[in-house]
Write a structure and sequence with these properties.
Helices cover 31% and strands 23% of the residues. The chain is of the alpha/beta class. The longest helix has 19 residues, at 59-77. It binds flavin-adenine dinucleotide. Flavin-adenine dinucleotide (FAD) binds at residues 6-12, 29-32, 39-41, 43-47, 178-180, 198-200, 202, 215, 217, 253-254, 295, 297-298, 320-326.
Length: 384
């Protein structure tokens, strides 16, 4: 088949790669230039933490995240270029005065564990246990939680490896080429057989419910810091995570602000992120600040992802929010199933919304929550 994909971010590249490998002729249109690394996919810390995220995410995301953790090693192994991926678990720490918040966090995780099968139980650590996992940590924190099996990957390596693969598979790539679904009539003569819209926030004109949630993140080089796994600090005002990459590089993030402002990072955010990181490991005091990034996470009204059909041969994937890397393999496999038939068994299992939409819902004027779309999966939810 002849398939056109809009957006060469995370979902666009993953889908293009899988479909080209399956023998289809794939064309990708990306609004940005090839050298532009400002998409949400490049800003992310790419932590793969279904249980840790369950404190702020609903069960469908947790289920998709569990699936993603098993699928990422396969997806990465199929690439010709290596991509850093680790599954050494997540460490969660807190200062003594924030013990009540930590207890609440632990309760939320334990409730998730009771609802969802297959999640490894969190382990409570004392100072000695912390030291065993991350030497030196026990001197700074009296207690912690360890969430086994959670992972992370290097998103820049992944995006580069996917691009190299697309070139090898002879996918046609149009950079600096913003497009909209209404530029195509999939299924008609001279038109693509399928159109896949993976534009993230760029899909907003046709899907007004899409909004951006601002996130700021800092890249540090701290060769003296030995932290080896993603570490979260519970804090009442500025909870942070530190995601180690290879060779002494760390990402410290991320703020979450209800705004589509993509202007540079504020002084307040930089101060909060850096001072919180310094309390986790004073070695960050000598780190070099390499990058301060502000980007928006593409998000739907209920903060859950969805797949939307625009006619018989156009699918839109959106709302990956703060979990894009965690759930991308699940979204990928759902879309591949939906291209084979009307329903996706995986979408039903995840309780992922598959909805039908109009090309220009703004003009059609469907009010939020009015449910103008037919139910397509048991997981149907009303979205604008
Ligand atoms: C600060 C931050 C931290 C994050 N941390 C994590 C994390 O730790 N773990 C995790 O799982 N997720 C994380 N995420 C979320 C993750 O990055 C996103 O969910 C994911 O990138 C969304 O993927 P996408 O393909 O839908 O959109 P994107 O990656 O944004 O890609 C959309 C692409 O479409 C292009 N485009 C837009 N308009 C058009 C048009 N008209 N025509 C053609 N192309 C167009 C854009 O230029 C872009 O390249 C984080 C996000 C941010 C901002």
């Amino acid at each position: 088949m002849n398939i056109v994909i809009l957006g060469a971010g995370l979902m666009g590249r993953l889908l293009a790669c899988s479909l080209a490998r399956a023998g289809h002729t794939v064309t990708v249109h990306e609004a940005a230039e090839a050298t532009d690394r400002r998409a949400a996919a490049f800003a992310a810390a790419a932590m793969l933490a279904p249980l840790a995220e369950s404190a702020v995410a609903e069960d469908p995301v947790v289920r998709m995240g569990q699936y993603g953790l098993t699928r990422w090693p396969e997806l990465i192994a199929a690439l010709d270029t290596p991509v850093f991926f680790q599954q050494q678990g997540t460490l969660v720490v807190w200062h003594r005065q924030d013990a009540a918040d930590a207890q609440r966090f632990a309760h939320l995780l334990s409730a998730t564990g009771q609802r969802q099968s297959g999640l490894p139980a969190p382990k409570t650590l004392d100072a000695a246990g912390l030291d065993q996992l991350e030497p030196g940590m026990g001197a700074r924190f009296a207690q912690g939680l360890y969430l086994p099996g959670e992972g992370q990957l290097d998103n820049h390596q992944l995006m580069d490896a996917l691009l190299a693969q697309l070139r090898r598979l002879q996918v046609t790539l149009h950079w600096g080429s913003p497009r909209s679904p209404d530029d195509f009539a999939p299924g008609q003569a001279g038109q693509p057989d399928w159109l896949l819209d993976c534009r993230g926030l760029g899909a907003k004109p046709q899907w007004p419910g899409v909004r951006g949630v601002r996130g700021e993140i800092i890249t540090l080089h701290a060769p003296n810091v030995t932290l080896s796994r993603p570490t979260r600090l519970i804090h009442p005002r500025y909870p942070i995570y530190i995601a180690p990459k290879q060779d002494g590089y760390f990402l410290v993030g991320a703020t979450e602000i209800e705004s589509e402002d993509r202007s540079p990072m504020s002084v307040r955010s930089a101060l909060e992120l850096l001072s919180a990181a310094y309390t986790v490991d004073s070695g960050f005091g000598e780190a070099r600040i390499l990058d301060l990034v502000a980007q928006c996470r593409p998000t739907l009204p209920d903060n859950l992802p969805a797949v939307r059909r625009l006619g018989a041969r156009c699918l839109q994937v959106n709302g990956l929010y703060r979990h894009g890397y965690l759930i991308a393999p699940a979204m990928l496999d759902v879309v591949l199933q939906l291209m084979q038939g009307d329903r996706s068994a995986l979408a039903t299992a995840f309780d992922l919304a598959v909805i039908a939409g109009d090309l220009a819902p703004t003009q059609a004027g469907h009010p939020v929550g009015a449910a103008p779309w037919p139910r397509m999966n048991s997981g149907f939810r009303e979205l604008a």
